[in-house]
Structure formats: C-alpha cells, structure tokens
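Structure first, sequence second, as always.
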C-alpha cells in the first residue's frame, strides 16, 4: 500500500487545448501553472479537514502539477499512513476518511474558477501573438 494520497481531476478537452496552444505558438508550460494554481486552492481546505493527532498529516498536504493535471497530495516518508487513513484499509479495520477528495469535490467551483482564469490568460496571450 502506497504511503501517500494523490487526488486529481481530469479536464475534458485538455489534450485538444494543449495541441491548439502548441499550434498557435503558445507555451504549454503555462498549463502546468494553471493546474498548479487550481490544486493550490484545495491545500488549505484539505489541511483543515485532515484528521489531527500530531498535525503531521495536515502539514504533509501539498499541490503538484504537470501540463496534463493538477494534484493534491498528502503523506510522505515520515507520514506513511496518509493513504490508509484517506482511502481506508479493510484488512486493518481502518475506515476510509477521504478528506482530500471531499475538499476537492466540495470546492469544485472554487478551483474551477481559478483554472478558468488561468486558461483565459493563456488564450489571451495566444490571441495577442496572432495579431
């Protein structure tokens, strides 16, 4: 069982958007920034929802991104219990407590707005280059 939680959301049409940006001479690395900004909106919310014993689990929550996805992660080597606490571990009678997934789902409007703002900026840059 992996020691960290990784929650991501898939954006429909992102592959076509990357291709369009590339063809228009834009920088697809800007998509990484859009994905990261959207994921970062969830970090403090997920930290607030994380089960608290020592506080290490909440402190391990961080955002990550690629050009294809934004992710919210929890856990690391010193916090190997993040995955079983989040997703559950039936063999050990640990019930799921998906606080990261719940934070992302309940606040979709928030991160989606941030994502859309970044995409609008990217498209504005491309339109500016075409002129």
């Amino acid at each position: 069982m992996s020691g960290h939680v990784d929650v991501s959301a898939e954006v429909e049409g992102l592959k076509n958007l990357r291709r369009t940006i590339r063809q228009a001479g834009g920088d697809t690395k800007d998509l990484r920034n859009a994905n990261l900004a959207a994921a970062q909106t969830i970090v403090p919310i997920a930290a607030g929802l994380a089960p608290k014993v020592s506080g290490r689990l909440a402190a391990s929550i961080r955002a990550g991104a690629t050009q294809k996805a934004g992710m919210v992660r929890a856990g690391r080597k010193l916090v190997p219990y993040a995955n079983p606490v989040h997703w559950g571990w039936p063999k050990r009678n640990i019930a799921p407590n998906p606080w990261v997934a719940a934070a992302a789902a309940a606040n979709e409007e928030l991160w989606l707005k941030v994502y859309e703002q970044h995409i609008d900026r990217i498209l504005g840059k491309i339109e500016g280059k075409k002129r």
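Margin note: The chain has seven helices and three strands.
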